[in-house]
Amino acid sequence: MLDLKEKFYIGKGDFQKCFIHPDNSNLCVKIKIDDNHKNDRVNKEVKYYEKIQNKRSKYFEYPFLAKFHGKEDTNLGVGFIYDLIRDETTNNVSLTLYDYLVMNESPFSDELFLDHLQKLKKQLIKHKVIVKDLTGKNICCKVLKNGCIELVIVDGVGHRDIIPFVEYIGIYRKMKINKIYRKKKLNSLDELRIFFDK
After folding, report:
1. In Å, what is the CA distance from 192 to each residue of 63, 64, 109, 112, 175?
2. pLDDT means per 10 residues in the chain (198 residues)?
3. I need a labelling partner for 51 at 20 to 30 A (CA). Which of 41, 68, 69, 116 fits?
């Protein structure tokens, strides 16, 4: 059983708390926040993760989605194990897109982020990955050794469509992902910053 002490705590979202894995600093452990509705949402997300990564992740051009590594018992309940995204330059836990966009002086330009967001969109469409909750806080910005960046999705995957046309019909999938980008303001960083303030 994993002993998740306070020193391993990273932060929390609406549905889960996140800790550095005590035995492997390149992994994180997510623990459900105790609420039946949230638990159901987390279970559905895990099932979707397992489905898409088993079939598709080996074909990804770059790892734009944190990999799921299964479950482990912890002192706080069942833990869901994922890649912990770290910058290659410092080995620090990567900041989110949100973190960079609210900085007074980001080391990266808006144009660079927009370029990578469009690259990410193409990968989602190509590899049939739907991320319903695609927000700036669910996208990590991994800084590479050469100074470039990669955007990596760390949460919010899946969809809640009863009839999953988006998984099988390309035009529906493209429409769905474009709709998510519009709704989450990912086509304009000025709009996204305003969206953060709401």
Report:
1. 24, 20, 14, 15, 20
2. 94 90 97 71 85 76 90 95 97 97 94 97 92 94 96 89 73 92 94 84
3. 116
